[in-house]
Task: inverse folding
C-alpha cells in the first residue's frame, strides 16, 4: 500500500485495511514522505518525530504488519521519485512481499505528491514480470476517473476507521477537513453497494 504520507490511507481505505486484518491478511504500508511540510509553523524535525510516533501507534492499533518509510521530501515527490533508489526499493518490497493487491492514491487526486506516488508505483509494477493488481483510493476529491469501480463493505469497521483517522493528531487541521467528507462518502458508497458504509476503489490493472 504505497502512500504519500502516513495518514492518506486513513481517509481512503482504513475500513478496508481493518477488514483485511480481521481476515488475517498481512498489510504493509509504504510511506513516501513524512508530510513534514503540512504544518508550516512547526519545525520539520519536530513534526517528523511526532509523525513517526503517530504512525507506529496508529499502525499497531489497526493491525498493519509493517511500515516502510522511503524518507522523501514532502511536496517534492514529483522530483524525488525520479531518484534511482526509489524504483529499486519499490521493486524489492514488491518482489519480497508478493502482495495480492497494491493500493495507491488516485492519479487524478489534485495533490501533486499523490499523483507522483501513483505514477512511480504503476511504472515499477508494469516493469515486473509477475502481474500485480493495482487499485486506486481517494484522499481528496477525485473526478473524471474512468477505471472500473470496486466497492468494499466496511460497515463492521467504520468505528475503527474513524478512530484511526483521529489518531493522526499532528495533522488534525488537515484531517478534520477530510474527516466528515470521508464519512459522508462512506455512506454514499454504502448505498451504492447495498450496505451501510463502503469504500470505493478504482481498478487500474
Result:
Amino acid at each position: 500500500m504505497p502512500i504519500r504520507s502516513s495518514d492518506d490511507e486513513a481517509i481512503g481505505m482504513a475500513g478496508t485495511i481493518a477488514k483485511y486484518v480481521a481476515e488475517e491478511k498481512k498489510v504493509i504500508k509504504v510511506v513516501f514522505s513524512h508530510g513534514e511540510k503540512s504544518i508550516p509553523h512547526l519545525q520539520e524535525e519536530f513534526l517528523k518525530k511526532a509523525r513517526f510516533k503517530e504512525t507506529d501507534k496508529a499502525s499497531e492499533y489497526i493491525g498493519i504488519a509493517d511500515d516502510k518509510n522511503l524518507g522523501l521530501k514532502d511536496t517534492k515527490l514529483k522530483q524525488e521519485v525520479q531518484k534511482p533508489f526509489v524504483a529499486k526499493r519499490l521493486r524489492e518490497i514488491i518482489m519480497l512481499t508478493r502482495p495480492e493487491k497494491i493500493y495507491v492514491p488516485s492519479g487524478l487526486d489534485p495533490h501533486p505528491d499523490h499523483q507522483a506516488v501513483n505514477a512511480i508505483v504503476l511504472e515499477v509494477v508494469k516493469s515486473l514480470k509477475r502481474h500485480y493488481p493495482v487499485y486506486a483510493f481517494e484522499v481528496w476529491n477525485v473526478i473524471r476517473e474512468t477505471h472500473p469501480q470496486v466497492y468494499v463493505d466496511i460497515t463492521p469497521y467504520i468505528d475503527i476507521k474513524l478512530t484511526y483517522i483521529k489518531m493522526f493528531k499532528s495533522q488534525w487541521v488537515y484531517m478534520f477537513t477530510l474527516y466528515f467528507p470521508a464519512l459522508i462518502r462512506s455512506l454514499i458508497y454504502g448505498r451504492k453497494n447495498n450496505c451501510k458504509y463502503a469504500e470505493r476503489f478504482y481498478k487500474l490493472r
Q: What stands out?
A: The longest strand covers residues 66-72. The mean pLDDT is 90.
